[in-house]
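Slide 14.
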Amino acid sequence: MTKVQLQAQLISEKDGKAQVIRKAGFIPAIMYGASAANKSIKVKKHDFAKAFKVAGEFNLVDLSVGQDKPVKVIVKDVQRDGLTDNVIHIDFYQVDMAKKILTEIPLHFVGESKAVKDLGGTLVKNMDTVKVSCLPGDLVSHIEVDISKLVEFDNFIRLHDLILPQGVELASATNEAVVGVVETKIEVEAPKPVEAAPVEGEAAAQEPGKEAKGPAAPESSAKPENKKADETKK
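Slide 15: predicted structure.
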């Protein structure tokens, strides 16, 4: 494991509010632990960015506050500005090297799946980290998952299949799938029905706002009756 060192300073009243501390090039932070008193501290932005790039949230950091001897901590939480994504606050947790801790370790997927390459399957990752229990000194930067074992559809690597480093145990060894390959299903769009050509005489009925007209009725050749003439004859 790479050794990461970071220097910090105690925050005093003359430092002012958090906004003032940030403008001065520092990040406000707090350090705490099961057997340690809480300390309000600040670290230089550049120094933290450099250390965090190596350690992340999963490796130990040797944190020195002022002239004190360095203590082992992990980055427990990082708060960022919603607009700029800049780090605005950090939580450092001081660990006891003799006591196990619960933490999450990233998973690195290595190898090549035959079911994906040759059969055209889809690789499905259900998790990117795994929760483990271990002594702080046994922490590792990541755990490898070899997906070359996935040679057929519906093959899965489950939590209990993971190969863990010595001293690292799963927080819960369940049957939950970590990664697998499923058959890729291609959806075929159904053909649209062909519209029949209108029959002659029906075209008008298909135009909006118009009613279809049937054949015209033949005109009657009979003359209207003359009722007055009939009455005279009588």
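Speaker note: The CA atoms of residues 4 and 51 lie 6 Å apart.
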